[in-house]
Amino acid sequence: MNNQNRQQININPEDTTPIECPKCKSQIFQECFMMRKISAIISPSGREEVFSIPVPVCIACGTPYTGSTEERISNNSVEE
Asked: Is the pTM of this model over 0.70?
């Protein structure tokens, strides 16, 4: 997708719902990465590979923010 086909959306932060850490209620998160290994048996290249998955982590207590984006939006919460 090139930049010409992207639609710019303006969202007022006041119209959104804050997300809190389920453990300490902080609203500040840092992006960290969960590392995963793919077996050579299922890897498209036929070799063992490593890849990363971005995971928001609370900077106050270190709790990872879990759940899919759809769950987070539909529940307006991070609680499981």
From this structure: no
